[in-house]
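Supplementary Text 2. Reproducibility record for the structural model of the 211-residue chain.

All settings were left at their defaults, and a single model was retained for analysis rather than an ensemble. We include the record here because the model underlies the residue-level annotations in Supplementary Table 4.
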Amino acid sequence: MTVNSRRQPKQSRSKATVDAIITATTQVLTQDGYAGLTTNRVAEVAGVSIGSLYQYFNGKESLVQAVIERHADSMLALLKTTLADSVGTSVPQAVRSFVRAMLDAHSLDPRLHRVCVEQAFHLGLEHILHIRGTAQELVEFYLQEHQEAILPKDLKLTASLLVTTVDANIHSAMLSPTPPDMGALGDEVIAMVLRYLGILDDSEAEGPALP
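Retained model, structure tokens:
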């Protein structure tokens, strides 16, 4: 289900109001959860009238969607920058950078990320699918430039498997009651990806330990 905001802000003052509302929604959502989120509470935290809030948002679900969209944009911006910087690097170096970027993207705000994932399933999977789809396109583009160095030949399927596998492992770790050391997890995921690609010697990927 897609929930759209009502009025699109054009003036700087209107944009500032919308930004304050989304920021307040993020704060309330992470502190009190979806059950504790109300439009009145968001308006209070944002310092705006309830009428101003309803000028831009239809209600509770459209507020949550705006938070998910902002979080998704932040994650994608980080992934795009990393993959763009990896175009001229070796496959092991690119894999290490990609896995680190995925870890960083999921760690931008772990509590918010968890809430966003939970609510994305409630509102619809469009945002999750958009992030994965964009990441897959970027990975596939990189693989096309280095297809002679890897074993798999179906690059679209390979990109899909890589993004889904890395994402699933990181999500599983972050949602675990006792999360593993993320640096160690990253190293294992890197090793797994390199072996899938048919690169058994990952010495080129050696570098600083993952944070």
